[in-house]
Design a protein that fits this description.
By secondary structure, the protein is α/β, with parallel strands linked by helices. The chain has 21 helices and 25 strands. An eight-stranded mixed sheet has the order 4-3-2-5-8-7-10-9, sandwiched between helices. Helix 8 (about 240-255) crosses helix 9 (about 275-280) and helix 13 runs antiparallel to helix 14 (about 405-430). The longest helix is centred in the middle third of the chain and has 25 residues, at about 405-430. It is globular and about 85 Å long.
Length: about 650
């Protein structure tokens, strides 16, 4: 509330229960401080004296020389944001990292920013252009895979232990003590759990990460659990032992020139170095083709691999894939501190933008520039929509879990409807919208390729984590790629922490029934409120909040029922038709879907979600778009 009397502009904050909170204005302008560096990392040091050659870069990355560890990644200028994030985390954690630049531009920018890098052979080929297509079948990708495996083998032959890392990995701790495991004290580096002791991997010549879904099962069962899944060379450790060196060389040779025969031929092989790796280590090239050595203890981390190789399985709890970290948050449940987070299992386009978004939501993205000076924000709190609360209460009354498809679809529809109003208001105010932390009641799979209903609405294989409900990643509700293509900026809930660190505190904007809002404005000595009436237009809302124009951050309690009209609705409605289209939510059914989903959904709704009329064992639900706003939508309201 702002007084009509001159000079009476002060602000206090209280709580609103059934009556209104009074907010008194202090005319203080808060400026957003700039980051110390473009990546948001520590202040940049002077670039090392690197000339593009490998040996000086290795000496800088691992000053102890051969026998030490190098965490090695590769990328070109098109991957510079991901490389920046990789470097920022590695430097902050004290990781001995090295970037193999795939073009001269990447090398120039990396070294300019103080990163340790060198020029790979492809960077010296002016005609080469990297194509990072997920299909991995282009000539560009094949040449990249040959180069990458060749550089790993080259550095191992120089006597270094190499942890090959994809660029979409955030290194949170230095893995050197764990991977080199030079003394008994190093066992504590993994956190002390039996399945995470480095001594269990000491005899491995090569150790690889896994795409399996359960870090808990991985700790309990060990390498035998990883053997049945997909091995992921995005985190691949090679020791400079005779066997490790020979394997790295043979991996490169096989990628470069696959031997004749069925083992490395289609189907299923071999458009990527990861597929070649899998065929090489599995005995006979078949599946699973891996097993713990005879007499190995439960929870051991070693596997008998083809070619007399001792293969290790990196603990999933310490070298986490994207689902384990971002969705399950298994590290919190298990009480472990991961060394690395690999941004796999993203949805939407699966490309760099989707991965960056997952990192941002977790507060792990270090490649965004600081906000433009004077950028202002609008946030709104997450609160459970009433229709979702009602559905949950009904299932509780029936003795059923709320982690089901009905509650989840109801939540998706309500979240997007509320987002419509928040986004429209943000655009009317000229502010960047901060998205809330929504709650998901079902996991979401890439393409509905399995039956999620049998596993409590959790990704098959992850159900032992019992992680539902969980904070929704944006790509479970919206398409980050669509927002990026439309050029609509937004921030994530984690950005509130960044603003708080910079001393920015939100101005809380209340939402009141219109009669209550009108009555407060009619009081003596009250001219302005830090509040909006429910059922307003964007134009009216902008006028009512004009006195807060300079405030860096406004925050609403929620945005349900906020707007009933827009002054110029068509441009926003056209934009909303793209931005607010929730992705389809699909699953297989292990029995006819109408029967399996009967506890939650009526048969007619299930039939309508069939991907094909005769398909009885699959569903794809498409959450509806919110209703478009009109210019006369508030007519008749008072």
């Amino acid at each position: 509330v702002t007084s009509r009397s001159p000079g009476m502009r002060s602000r206090t904050v209280g709580l609103l229960a059934l009556s209104v909170l009074c907010l008194l204005w202090v005319n203080t302008r808060v400026m957003l401080p700039a980051s110390a560096s473009p990546s948001g990392s520590a202040p940049l040091r002077e670039p090392p004296p690197l000339d593009g050659e490998l040996e000086p870069a290795l000496a800088w990355a691992a000053p102890g020389g051969p026998g030490g560890l190098v965490v090695l990644t590769f990328g070109d200028k098109g991957y510079f944001a991901a490389l920046s994030n990789f470097v920022a985390h590695a430097r902050a954690a004290g990781v001995p990292y090295l970037v193999g630049a795939v073009d001269a531009d990447a090398f120039r920018e990396l070294t300019l920013h103080g990163a340790t890098a060198y020029l790979t052979p492809l960077a010296r080929d002016a005609a080469y252009a990297f194509n990072p297509s997920n299909s991995h079948d282009s000539n560009s990708w094949v040449r990249f895979a040959r180069m990458r495996t060749g550089e790993v083998a080259r550095i191992v032959r120089l006597g270094y232990a190499v942890m090959h890392s994809d660029t979409d990995v955030a290194w949170l701790r230095d893995p050197s003590p764990f991977l080199l495991c030079r003394d008994a004290a190093s066992d504590a580096a993994g956190g002390g759990a039996a399945g995470a002791r480095c001594s269990a991997l000491r005899e491995a010549d090569v150790a690889v990460s896994s795409d399996n879904m359960s870090p808990g099962e991985d700790l309990r069962i060990g390498a035998a659990y990883a053997a049945g899944g997909t091995l992921n060379t995005g985190l691949l450790f090679v020791r400079p032992t005779a066997a490790g060196t020979a394997f790295a060389t043979r991996w490169h040779e096989t990628v470069s020139s696959p031997p004749p025969g069925k083992r490395f031929a289609p189907p299923g092989c071999c458009t990527s170095d990861q597929q070649v790796f899998g065929r090489m280590v599995r005995v006979g090239g078949g599946y699973p083709g891996l097993a713990p050595p005879a007499g190995a203890p439960t929870g051991g981390r070693l596997l008998r691999a083809d070619g007399n190789l001792t293969l290790g399985s990196l603990p999933l709890a310490l070298f986490m894939n994207g689902h384990s970290y971002f969705v399950q948050r298994a590290h919190e449940r298990l009480g472990v501190a991961p060394f690395a987070v690999h941004a796999t299992y993203t949805l939407d386009t699966h490309e760099g933008g989707a991965k960056a978004q997952r990192f941002r939501e977790a507060g792990l993205w270090r490649a965004d520039p600081p906000p433009p000076q004077g950028e202002r924000f609008l946030a709104y709190n997450f609160s459970e929509p009433p229709e979702v609360a009602a559905r949950r209460a009904e299932y509780a009354r029936r003795g059923l879990s709320a982690a089901n498809v009905d509650v989840h679809l109801s939540a998706l529809e309500a979240y997007v409807a509320e987002l419509r109003d928040a986004l429209a208001l943000a655009r009317a105010l000229g502010r960047t919208l901060l998205l809330p932390r929504w709650t998901c009641w079902c996991d979401r799979m890439w393409a509905g390729s399995d039956d999620i209903f049998r596993f409590g609405c959790m990704y098959p294989g992850a159900q032992d984590g019992n992680f539902v409900p969980f904070p929704c990643p944006m790509d479970h509700i919206l398409s980050p790629a669509a927002w990026a293509k439309a050029g609509v900026g937004h921030r994530d809930a984690a950005f509130l922490d960044t603003l708080a660190e910079r001393g920015v505190r939100p101005v809380e904007v209340l939402l009141l029934p219109r009669a209550q809002h009108r009555a407060l404005l009619a009081r003596p000595r009250v001219a302005l409120l830090d509040a909006l009436p429910l059922g307003t237009s964007d134009g009216e809302a902008a006028k009512l909040l004009a006195h807060l124009r300079a405030a860096p951050l406004l925050r609403l309690q929620h945005a349900r029922g906020l707007l009933c009209a827009l002054d110029a609705p068509q441009p926003f409605n056209d934009l909303a038709a793209t931005l607010l289209r929730a992705p389809a939510w699909c699953s297989r059914c292990s029995q006819p879907c109408e029967e399996q989903l009967a506890p939650w959904l009526p048969a007619e709704r299930v039939r309508a979600a069939r991907p094909a009329p005769a398909e009885q064992h699959a569903v794809c639900f498409q959450p509806p778009l919110p209703a478009p706003l009109r210019s006369d939508g508030c007519a008749g309201r008072s």
